[in-house]
Design goal:
Length: 323
C-alpha cells in the first residue's frame, strides 16, 4: 500500500506558484489549503491513517497524535516548530523535522525594508502623489513625515546569528555602525559588528533590531524598563517574534515620541487582533508576517521538506528537532 502524506495547511507555503509534484512522488499526497490554527477534531480527521504529516501553523497536539497512531513523521514547513508537541512526539516515536536557514536573505532584506520605510514613508508619499497632492502643491516638493538619513547612525542587533549578521552587513553598506548582542559571539560576527552587553546596546543604538529566538527568558524583553534605557527617538524593528515586545509598552512609547517609529512584521497573536494597541500607535508600520515569503525562499522550504522526508524514508533522518 502506498504511504499517505497529508499537508494540512499548504496555502501559505504554496498559494499556487509552486508545485507539490516532488512530494507526490513520495506517496499518496493529499493537500489541504487550510485546516485549523487551533486544536480541532478536524485535524485528526484529515490526518486519518497518514504516516507523514506536513504542517506550517496547524497545531499537532498530544490529543491529535493519540488519535492518529499511524503518524511516523511530522514535517514542519518552517524553522519554528512550536506548533508541534515535540516532547510527546518523541515519547510516541514520531520524528519532527523543520527547515533551517531557508530565509536568511529574505528576512534580513525585509528588516532593512522596514527600516527604510520608517525613515522615508515611501508608501505614504506614493499614496499622496496618487491622490493628487503633488499635482495640487504650490511647492516644488513636500514631505509628510520627517526623513531620516542612516549614514553615521548606529544599528543595534539583538540576536546575531545568520539573519542578524546578514542584516548587519547591509547596515554597514548603508554607512551604519553595527552593535550586536548574542549569547554566542563568534569570529564571523566580530568582523561585522561590535559585541556589547544588552544595556550598552540599548544606550548606544539609534536603531534596535530584533533577530533572536523566542525563549522564556526574553519574552517581552522590549518593555517599559528597557525602552527607558534607549535613546530618545530610537527606531524599533521586529520581524523575529511578536512576543519579544510588550505591545502596550511599545505603543505607549510610540505615542509619547520616545520611540520615533517602529517597523513590525510580527505581533503577539497572529492574525493580529483588532484591539492590538499597536494598530492605533503613532508612526507604527505593521505588515502581515511576510518577511519569509518571497517565492525563492518558499521554494527552498519546499525543497528542504522533500529532502527531509526522503532522508527519513531512507533511514537517515535530518533536521530532526526532537532527537
Amino acid at each position: 500500500m502506498s504511504r499517505r502524506i497529508v499537508v494540512l495547511d499548504g496555502f501559505t507555503e504554496n498559494p499556487g506558484d509552486l508545485c507539490w509534484d516532488a512530494l507526490k512522488a513520495l506517496g499518496e499526497l493529499e493537500v489541504y489549503d487550510r485546516t485549523s490554527y487551533q486544536d480541532s477534531d478536524l485535524i485528526a480527521k484529515r490526518i486519518g491513517d497518514a504516516e507523514i504529516v506536513v504542517v506550517n501553523k496547524t497545531p499537532i497536539t498530544k490529543n491529535t497524535m493519540d488519535r492518529c497512531p499511524g503518524i511516523k513523521l511530522i514535517a514542519v514547513l518552517a524553522t519554528g516548530f512550536n506548533v508541534v508537541d515535540c516532547a510527546y512526539a518523541k515519547e510516541k516515536g514520531i520524528a519532527v523535522v523543520n527547515v533551517p536557514a531557508y530565509g536568511t536573505a529574505a528576512v534580513s532584506q525585509y528588516s532593512i525594508a522596514l527600516l527604510l520605510e520608517v525613515c522615508h514613508h515611501i508608501g505614504a508619499h506614493d499614496a499622496s502623489v496618487h491622490a493628487g497632492e503633488w499635482a495640487d502643491s504650490i511647492d516644488w516638493c513636500y514631505w509628510k513625515y520627517p526623513l531620516i538619513e542612516l549614514d553615521g547612525k548606529t544599528m543595534g542587533i539583538i540576536g546575531f546569528g545568520r539573519i542578524g549578521q546578514a542584516e548587519g552587513r547591509i547596515a554597514k553598506a548603508l554607512g551604519m555602525k553595527v552593535l550586536a548582542y548574542d549569547l554566542f559571539p563568534n569570529e564571523t560576527g566580530k568582523e561585522i559588528g561590535e559585541y556589547v552587553a544588552l544595556d550598552e546596546l540599548f544606550a548606544r543604538a539609534d536603531v534596535v533590531s530584533l533577530h533572536c529566538n523566542l525563549t522564556q527568558e526574553n519574552f517581552g524583553m522590549i518593555n517599559r524598563e528597557t525602552i527607558a534605557k534607549m535613546k530618545d527617538g530610537v527606531i524599533l524593528i521586529n520581524n523575529a517574534r511578536g512576543q519579544l515586545i510588550n505591545e502596550q509598552d511599545v505603543a505607549d512609547a510610540l505615542n509619547a515620541g520616545k520611540i520615533a517609529g517602529a517597523g513590525l512584521d510580527v505581533v503577539s497573536t497572529e492574525p493580529i487582533k483588532k484591539d492590538n494597541p499597536l494598530l492605533k500607535a503613532k508612526n507604527c508600520i505593521i505588515t502581515p508576517h511576510i518577511s519569509w515569503a518571497p517565492k525563492e525562499a518558499r521554494q527552498r522550504i519546499m525543497d528542504c521538506t522533500v529532502s527531509n522526508i526522503e532522508a527519513f524514508l531512507n533511514g537517515t533522518p535530518k533536521n530532526v528537532v526532537n532527537p
